[in-house]
């Protein structure tokens, strides 16, 4: 539709300043209100079957019955509308539905601000400053609570039958306990899978105060109930009780300790001036071509550093049974397991979202925000780099399990 120059000139008469056009009482807002009222009037005409100002059809009792005022909240601030009524209240407008109080994607704006880590109070202030909207905390809570329905659907969706790699990781989040009313450090566990086609997929998130074999077994059983029948490699960060739980649910899965986390744990024992040298010596261990040569490098590391950092080598030896599988893989697979770029990127996105929060009032509040962070993470691309070479290796190493 093309608007004529003459009509534009007529509309813009008296517009001399930007606020005359875009301000709270400007032409654009007034035009929006009048157009919406005109459309609502057209809807009522279609409902009643006769034009405004004309006579109703013979024998029809339902007629126009004035207007009622409704105030909508939108990106232009508050929009007071005169909504037409009918006598028997059977008119159900589509443009502005009964009970509707928001337009212009206001719900999406609120959810977007919440996903960015803003608190309810921050969202209130933001909408007031930028849009001139006074939004109640109850409205914000209702809008963000709707995310929980999406979370439940996401958490129960069907999964792939087989995942070549699943990385399990945990973050600590402060959440107020419902019973004691004290703030506790709870763990948020995330499972990030890699599909046969090299697509990253967050399989789920779980919040628990304590981890252990029983907890992890429930997670594994949930994954099985959602359709996953096999995991080729499970990468974990020394999570207590996990090896037992994973092998109970997926007997053929290969449990692999996350090398990145093991290195970071080791460097926590070092002074800053020694970290670079210690990291280089540790690299000689996990870059060894075979498990035997890696163990020899570990012996050499212990001989060199035992006097100064006695805790590092024993930590590697305690995890050695879950480190050994790493050396049986081709470099294409080792790189994916070692770098764990995907889980690190995911953790950064989650930490950025929760950074502004001192604590969460309940598990549900933390779940909403973390889920929205995951949703944003998956929008940025899900392909694993250099997957083609790794896929060929998986097909050879695992044969029918990979192709099943």
TrEMBL record:
Q: Where does this protein have compositionally biased stretches of type Polar residues?
A: 59-70
Please give the Pfam families that the UniProt record associates with this protein.
Transposase_mut
Q: Which GO terms describe its molecular function?
A: DNA binding; transposase activity
Stretch list, region Disordered:
50-72
State the source organism's domain of life: Bacteria
Q: Which UniProt keywords apply?
A: DNA recombination, DNA-binding, Transposable element, Transposition
GO biological process terms, alphabetically, are:
DNA transposition
* Entry function: Required for the transposition of the insertion element.
- What protein family does this chain belong to? Belongs to the transposase mutator family.
Q: Which NCBIfam families match?
A: transpos_IS256
Protein name per UniProt: Mutator family transposase
